[in-house]
Structures are given as C-alpha cells and as structure tokens.
Amino acid sequence: MYLLNRLILIDSYKPGELVEVRLDGHTNLNGVNGAGKTTLLRLVPLFFGERPGRLVPKSRVTDSFAKHYLPNESSYIIFEYQRNEQTCMAVIYAAPSDDGLCYRFVDKGFERDDFIETRRDGTFYPVSCRSLRAHFTKRRINHSEQLTACSDYRTVIQNLPHKKGQEMRQMVARYSFCNHSTGHRLKDIEKIITGMLTRSTDFADLRDMLVNCIEENRDAISLDVQMETLDSWHKEYRAYQSTEAEREKIVRLNQLETEFGQVELGLGELHYRLRCLLSQNEQHLLQAQTAGNACNQQLEQLKQTWEGREQQLKSALAEGKAALEQVQREQTLLLKEKTEW
Predict the structure, then answer these.
(1) Helix (H, G, I), strand (E, B) or coil at 103
(2) Cα–Cα distance between 285 and 281 in angstroms, integer?
(3) Mean pLDDT in residue range 31-57
(4) 129, 143, 193, 254: which could form a disulfide with 45 (CB 3.0–4.6 Å)?
(5) CATH fold for domain 2-27+35-201
(6) 177 exposed, middle or buried (CB, 10 Å; 0-12, 13-18, 19+)?
(7) By the 8 A CB rule, do 46 and 92 touch?
(8) Which secondary structure element, helix H or strand E, spans residue 45, and what is its range?
(9) Distance CA 340, CA 333 (A)
C-alpha cells in the first residue's frame, strides 16, 4: 500500500513551532480566518512534485515560496509516506544560496530527534539545513543525495522515465510513490492534486494528462466513442466553463451569505438581550409599584393615627381650658368673698 502518512512543518510559517498533520485518515482543519488552514493545505501538491511557484497565490503573498514557507535555514517541510512495508520521508528545505528548494529522501519514518537537537542548557533548536547531511550520517540514517531541481524530485516520486544515470534509477526504485517494478507511473498527478485543492485545473492540464495516459497505454486503450457522446462532453465542458466564469460572484455570494448569517446571529443575540432587559425592567417596575403601594398604605395608616391622636389632644385641650376657666371663676369668687370679709 502506498500512503501519505503525515505532513510535518518545522520552524515554517509559524516560527519556532513544530506542526504535524495526520494525512492517513479523515482530518478536520478548523480555526479562525488567518489561522493558516489554506496555507497548510497548499503544501500537499508539493509532495507529488508540483512547482513551488504555483502554490503561492501572487495576489495574497508577495514573497517567494521559500521565503514564505521556509524563511530560515532551520525550516523544513517533511512528508512521511508509506511504500508497502517501507516508511520514508521526503524532506524539503530552502537552498542556502538562492530562493530555490532542495529535496532529500530519507529511508525511515519521522522522529523529532532526527531534526531537533538539545543544547547543553536543555533548550531545543532545529538542525540547520547546511549540516543536515552530517547530522543524518552521525545518527546512521540512510538518506539520498540532495536534489536541487523540482523536475528531478518529480522524476523520483512519480517514477518517470529519465536518462540521468544509475544513481537516479536507484533513487527512483527506492523512493518512488508507486510500484517501480511494474512500470506504474504517476505522471502529472501533481496537476490533479493542485486542481482538487485550488480548483484551478484547466482544459490544457486535462488534455496533457489524457495524452500521456494514451501514450503510455496505446495498445491497451480502445477509443470507441460516438459523436453524440463527444457532443455531450463538449456541452458539459462549456457549461463547466460558464460556471467557472461565475466563480468569483458565487464566492462573493457565499461570503455575503456568511456575513448575513453573522449579522443575523448578532441581531438575534441583541434581541435576546433586549428581551432580558425589558423583563428585568418590568420586574423592577413591579417591585417599585409594590413598594410604593406599601408606602401609601403606611402613610394612610399614619395619617389616620395622627388624626385620631389630634382629636384626642383637642378634646383634652378643650377640657383643660374648661377646667382652667372654672378654677379662675372660683378664684374670683374667693377673692371677692375675702374682700367682703
């Protein structure tokens, strides 16, 4: 079984970090905008031999591929893959002298210590690409010679025919991503993978792949297609082109739909908060009204009590005045009797 197991980034577009993504099953990439999901996915065609320049969108990234993904001598893109019972690595790093890439195959699976060393103070640091060969040799790790051309790497990984000598033939037999002994090839597979991930495959790519398949299997392919079928294919392709011409509008509509959903969600949240505030306000108003009614009742009771008390005081005052007048009259009579006496 031939299988792509893992993608490992060391000190790449996330400086100083080791990022690992499993590719041997269902993998879910999620995160906010700008987290690097698309940036990560764009690297998959690189394993199949895609030219680095096709993987960096010119409208979004001004740097070259090497400066964007491999900014340091300690930056690596590593693909771990399976060749039946053999586990290999394709290691990609920036060329120290220019903006190109270097490729090296390793005859084992990925281990952290193969690329990261420990200092005496206990800190870790990635091995520089300048000393990677010496580091592999020190650890007795079987590896290929360094390839500096993307076309040579593509020849190895896709098992393509070549005239580059015995060393290249041995490398193809040892590290290709298909069965070398049966003559299977993966020519132009990088275009298929790139088209799947970027949705940018055009008719020229499909035509080239079809021609290559026919050339390699001329005796085994029988072309028996009716004109109606060809006409149907042509109409379907024209419809596909018409749909692709509207892709930007569709993408914009999807963005607007997403924005509308976010606005609708925000308005729903505001509406919920407003209802909560109205409910709280109604409760506070009801409590205030209840407290006001209680105060009014207390005030009415105090008023009634005061009026009763006032009436009692008035009655007592009237009785006191009457008693005083009586005493004064008696005093006057007594004084008069005293005088007469």
Answers:
(1) strand
(2) 6
(3) 82
(4) 193
(5) N-terminal domain of mukB (3.40.1140)
(6) buried
(7) yes
(8) helix 44-47
(9) 11
